[in-house]
């Protein structure tokens, strides 16, 4: 019953899966991007990481517009996290050194 009410409250859903080179980088991205608990009632997000080096994000919103705004904001934040990883993270620098 609770799942049905949640689906009714947030009928627009999008799941995004972002692969990373290592599980540690996926975990860093997860910690950086996790949504604060003070979400407005118009949207909800669930972010998880797992051992297969993939960041899983599920967005739920009351309207497609709210979903688009939330996902666009997430993508901008994800881009920033990845840029910082490219410049500062030891795993990324090591992977680049091995590929050249």
Automatic annotation (TrEMBL):
<comment type="similarity">
    <text>Belongs to the CTAG/PCC1 family.</text>
</comment>
<dbReference type="Pfam" id="PF09341">
    <property type="entry name" value="Pcc1"/>
</dbReference>
<dbReference type="InterPro" id="IPR015419">
    <property type="entry name" value="CTAG/Pcc1"/>
</dbReference>
<protein>
    <recommendedName>
        <fullName>Transcription factor Pcc1</fullName>
    </recommendedName>
</protein>
